[in-house]
């Protein structure tokens, strides 16, 4: 069983690092006019990792104890840079839990993207310390508790934005 967990931890760690690298590059100004579709790709790919965690059996830590990973990095610079780049499309509305809470809640893409990053970084701390089971436990727990919701909400908002840029075409007027 350890080999299966280890292989899953390796896959999730790779997805997490790819997401963090992509998010950092996009927050730093890369992507130009393709920023929104590129963010959609990043969120979609890390959501695949979340789906794998959701499909896996529950990861249970022996003694129900999570060792400390040390302080998590401050992501406020990335969040702020994303908010600046997203500008007026940063704010959107979302239903937090369509089965329990049907109230529309204001969200920010920059907050969602940074929240996903924070949870992934925490798990990477365990993974890099040679604790793949603890990393999986954290990623799975936080996927169900926080980052899965933020990634899903961000993906819906980003898909809507990309769709609007492609489908909301102004008709050309021709003069005769």
UniProtKB/TrEMBL annotation:
Highest taxon above the source species: Bacteria
InterPro entries, alphabetized: DUF5063, DUF5063_sf
Pfam family, any one: DUF5063
Name the record gives this protein: DUF5063 domain-containing protein
Organism this protein belongs to: Sphaerisporangium flaviroseum
């Amino acid at each position: 069983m350890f080999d299966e967990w280890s292989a899953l931890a390796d896959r999730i760690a790779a997805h997490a690092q790819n997401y963090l690298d992509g998010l950092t590059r996009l927050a730093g100004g890369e992507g130009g006019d393709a920023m929104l579709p590129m963010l959609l790709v990043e969120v979609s790919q890390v959501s695949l990792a979340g789906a794998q965690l959701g499909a896996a059996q529950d990861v249970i830590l022996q003694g129900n104890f999570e060792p400390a990973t040390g302080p998590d990095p401050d992501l406020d610079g990335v969040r702020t840079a994303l908010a600046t780049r997203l500008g007026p499309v940063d704010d959107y509305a979302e239903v937090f839990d369509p089965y329990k809470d049907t109230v529309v809640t204001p969200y920010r893409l920059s907050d969602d993207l940074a929240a996903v990053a924070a949870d992934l970084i925490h798990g990477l701390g365990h993974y890099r310390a040679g604790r793949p089971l603890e990393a999986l436990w954290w990623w799975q727990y936080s996927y169900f508790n926080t980052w899965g919701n933020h990634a899903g909400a961000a993906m819906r908002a980003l898909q809507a934005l990309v769709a609007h840029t492609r489908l909301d075409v102004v008709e050309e007027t021709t003069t005769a």
